[in-house]
Amino acid sequence: MLFPWENSCNITSRNCTEELNLTQQLQTRNMTVKRNDTDPFGRNEEVAKIEITVLSLTFIAAVVGNVSVLLAMYKTRRKLSRMHLFMKHLSLADLVVAFFQVLPQLCWEITFRFYGPDSLCRIVKHLQVLGMFASTYMMVMMTLDRYIAICHPLQTLHQPTQRAHIMIGSTWLCSLVLSTPQYFIFSLSEVHPGSAVYDCWGHFVEPWGVRAYITWITLGIFLVPVAVLVFCYGLICHTIWKNLKYKTRRKSVSVSAVAEANKTGILSRNSVSSVSTISRAKLRTVKMTFVIVLAYVVCWAPFFTVQMWSVWDENFSWDDSENAAVTLSALLASLNSCCNPWIYMIFSGHLLSDFASTMPCCRPLQNKFTHQDSDSSIRRTTLLSRLQGPRLSEPFRDLNSTPKTCPSTS
């Protein structure tokens, strides 16, 4: 129950004081099947069992997956790139989500009510939102890094690792600051005056407080980040399209230049690779980041849609069908924290190999992963790689219209 609140309007079935669960679950309260008889404001126990099962599996998958990624990075003998640095911190952010959002929610579903002091209530609420902000904004920073690498490659030559550390540090700091209001909004309080039933709920002085709060969370964690992601990927796709167009135009020139080189022993500079423009490695990381973003949107879009619907639609009544939509959207959102590590593994073959080498039971698979990674490298090697290619400091030098020649090294 990430954002439960106490409100005077009849927004739920708990005598006008119920919780909007903006973590992984919005609990169903006005269904009549097998309620908790020990609490006058009971719940649907059958739905709770399903939620507990899904949250348990989600927690296990998120921890195992993200710890595997971190262990593979720790054990790898390769130099980690900027992309791996962002992947590392996104895994850490997902672990924060797993341990401080999914796990507390799981415990909350088991006990039904929050059992702890007021200070623990506030800390839990802060950490729950901290994980959401950190995971989302780390993904945004990863996309921005890909945007710079593809659209402004020269900037990647100027202290790229230092810039990556600054981006990562600012993400954690920003997430910490933006989640601080949780301390002042939430507290341990009675679910209804005189009921002697306590829970960790949010309080708003003004009637519009709940609506403003949910809207702010939706904007800060979903809508604004998605807008930034769409903008960046729009520019990335435009740059890649221009690159492909250039490669098509130069293909015939390169073929004729290689044929001429076979006769004269001299190869035109313009024909060297297509050319130090956008490497396959960069394209692969762009694809990986895009899949991560797509998984995020698919998992969280239904959830935030339901939350906005619940506070902006005055006719929202929390009947059985609407509770089903709330529960399904919340369970789908909880899956996002366990998707990312498996996406990393799929798009980075050597991480699978490095991880397999650390696990005795997986070592027979190491040769298979290493062979696949080697084949991928071989496919990227061409006859032209034996020639002196452009230096890193001149990634687009071969776009000049004046042909230059270089001596053959064969």
Mean of residue pLDDT values: 73
Secondary structural class: mainly alpha
Termini separation (Å)?
Answer: 68 Å
Q: Please summarize the sheet with the most strands.
A: 3 strands, mixed
What general form does the structure show?
globular
Gross CATH architecture: Up-down Bundle
Radius of gyration: 26 Å
The portion of residues assigned to helices is: 55-70%
Here the CATH topology equals Rhopdopsin 7-helix transmembrane proteins
Element order: H for helix, E for strand = EHHHHHEEHEHHHHHE
Q: What is the C-level CATH assignment?
A: Mainly Alpha
Question: What is the count of DSSP helices, taking H or I runs of 4+ residues?
Answer: 11
- Strand segment count: 5
Chain oligomer state: single chain
CATH superfamily: Rhodopsin 7-helix transmembrane proteins
Strand content: under 5%
Domain G-protein coupled receptors family 1 profile: 65-344
GO cellular component, one term: plasma membrane
Protein name: Arg8-vasotocin receptor-like
Keywords: Cell membrane, Disulfide bond, G-protein coupled receptor, Glycoprotein, Membrane, Receptor, Transducer, Transmembrane, Transmembrane helix
